[in-house]
Specification:
30% of the residues lie in helices and 23% in strands. Helix 1 links the parallel strand 1 and strand 2. Helix 2 runs parallel beside helix 3.
Amino acid sequence: MTPAPFRFVLVGSGGISRAYAQSIARLAPAADLAAVVSRSGRRPGGVSDDVPVFPDVASVAVPFDGVALATPNGAHREGALAAAALGKHVVCEKVLAATRADMDAMIDACAAAGVTLAVTYQRRASPDNVALKRLLESGRLGRVFGVDMEVKFYRDAGYYGSAAYRGTRAMDGGGAYMQQAAHNADLLCWYFGMPDRVVSMLARRVHSIEVEDHGAALLHYPDGMIATFTASTVCRPGLATRLSLHAEAGTLVLENDRIVLWRVEGIENPTDPNYAVHDGATSATVSDTAGHEAILRDFIEAARTGREPLASGRAARDATELILRIYENDLLGEVFGGS
């Protein structure tokens, strides 16, 4: 027997909410959009008028199984705690939250309620990223001694002016690292764990915002690996994300989650040539929702079976923790005060 659709309440009506609405529609009949939560009363683009709108999660008056949080980072805690209090599962747009206190409150509330908490770190589902993860776990690449992660995007003034919360400490929680490079922070943590030493230099070079628009970090890991991690929204015209990895077996490079260079001895290039990922180099608009669909499909199965989702709340916490350490160890002290 085919299970009933997983009924989502979509929390938020801003730009990213449209990607969630489209993803839920494309997962039918496995998923269904039961309602929208929007303080403004607005529906996301593409959501039909027969989907009811409520001002908050607690007031939703239709049956539902879980929420998809598509609100700014600073509002994730409120939505997650309200859903957990009702015994509903939670999938959250990245990042989990922008502070340690908010993340821990969300994780604890969902654990106490016995509900699944997942985060949309969809790059964990990209085939070449999965292939690299497996190679690292197998040890076939040998000792990895150097990694360079580059997130050199461009955002114009119109992006930061499109919503009052953009570029603020209270709601965004940070700039290029927290907003644009969070997926890449998650990949670094997924692949290599947490560094034991972090130093960084952060700056506001172009945009009139509260947080950084450009920065570079140096990460040292317990096994001796050294990584560089650059994040920016001022690199005109915006470049593809790039991960370079240097190991005993050789060198490989990924751009936008695709292996574009493979110089590794004794191992066949595992790239999937037919896969493409959303390129956020020049725009925050998500035109390809395949990654979101993969996360929601995984989330539904995890919620129904009780297994861990691909990016659980506890796992996703590491990405924000890494970013917070980058902020706290800023040698310049121009943006967050340094340490």
